[in-house]
Structures are given as structure tokens and as C-alpha cells.
Amino acid sequence: MRFPVPELALPMAAMAAALAIPSAVSAQETRIAPAGHLPPMAEIGQMDWLEGTWEGTGIGGNRAAESWLPPSRGTMVGIFVQTGDDGGIQFTEHMYLMEEGGSLVLRLKHFNPDLTGWEERDEMLTFRLLAIEECAAFFQALTLRCDGPDGLVAAVRMRSDGVQVNELLFRFRRADAAPPLTSSCSDAPTTVDMNECYVSVLGRAEARRGEYLAAALERNDGDTDVAAMITQADAAYRLFADAECGAIYQYWIEGSIRNVMALTCRIGLTDRQTHTIWENWLTYMDSTPPLLPEPEPTR
Q: Which residues of 173-205 are buried (b: 16+ CB within 10 A; e: fewer)?
């Protein structure tokens, strides 16, 4: 979710980054509760449209992404990752969207790249529901809504200088679905065999990503700036994959399937990164054949 500190002063480093955003939006996406407002009745199942991985640009035009796991016993768990100018993680957010008192509330905590928190140990930011629609939820000072069939708009109010309140807008697109489980792995006789199978699939996926990345760098070896930024973008992908698939593992920590879930997450993200490299750097605008074949899901 993106710097959601509604009408509160931010830490100094966060303040500088927030002010680097090109501009606040003009139309108001967020809402503020009127006096005496009571949260509407709502259930977590009404937010199942949020499930999945969303990617876009965030602070300073840098890459940002967030993912939401399926509802589980009245709660959806999400993670947001904001990268910085160097391609590394600038900060993350751990989010819980949960049922409470017959309505919904969204709670979150911010973390620095070293996993130290912004908020005190037992403190968090809380956004209570104001209104809910078929594909939109309006919380106090924070909005989540669909933007077409594959888009997500997230907006939050922030007091940037102790006086002025700005509304920040983020647009995401839904990432492609991860490839289905391969029959060779899903048919493995034991959990250990299945884990080993997916480790092998991941190894093939990573080897191909390395091959396509090397080809992209070779094509741009005459432009050191471009080559450096390609390398930086790939490093940012790896940090995001670590955080995203680590969250998947943690979510399934009590189950024997935890390794399979984390590995399939990593395979899917690796394949998407390989395809991104191919599309951006190994193809041509005209009919010239690509430098390498279009990558298929790893089997």
C-alpha cells in the first residue's frame, strides 16, 4: 500500500521520498468519515477481487508491487514492496484486511529494508471501512478499487508538512497468473519428491533467466548506463521475489505444502521476469527475428 500515513507526519526519510512523487491527484479518491459515522456491515468475501499480485509504479516513478493472499477465516494478508532509485527495497508494508465488529478494517505496519519497523512494536496504522461496493472499498483516508478488468487504484491521504494534506494515487495492473503445476511434479509420490521436483524446475527457470539477461546485457554492451540499469532492474526483481515468495511460505508455514507453494511462486515470478527481459531487450520493432525464442512457462 504505499506510504499510508493518513494525515500524520512522516519520518524524515519518508517525507523526502513522498515529496519526490510528481504530484498529488486532483480528483479526490479518498473519503473521510462524517461525524457519528458507523462502519457498514461487510464480510471479507466481498474483497476477494483483491486477491493476487499487482504491479505498477510507485514513489519517484520506481517499481512497486503488492500481493494479497486468498481470504482465510475472516482475514486477507497482503504485502507491499516499494523500490528505491537504486532498485533495492525502499520499504515494505505488511497488511491485514480483516473482519471486525461486523465490518472490515485494514491494519498495516511499515518496515525498512533491514526489517526494522517504522511504528512501535505493538503499534500499527488502522483504516476503518466507510463504504463498500462491488469492486471497491473506501476506508478512512484510504481507497482500494478496481480500474477496469485488470487494474487496481490505491489512494491515500497524507499530511506531508504537518499542515498540507495531499492525496497520493497509485495504479497497478494485475500480473499474469503463475504457470500451473507441472504434471511431473504434482504427480510425485511423496512431499519430499515433489519438493525436489520443483527445486529442479526452479533451477531451469533461473538458468534461462540468466541466459536471457546475459543476452540483453550483451546487446547493450556499448551503452554502460543502459546495461547498468538492466542489471539494477533484475536485482530489484530478485528482491521482490524474495519478499513475495517468502510471504507465501510464511502463510503456509503450518502445512507440509509450504515449500511447494513458495517454489511455484518463485518459478512463476522467474518466468515473468524472463519474459519481460525478452520483450524489452531481445525483440525488435520491425520483423527482425528476436535474439532468443519467446520463453514458455518452465516445465
A: ebbeebbebbeebeebeeeeebbebbeebbeeb
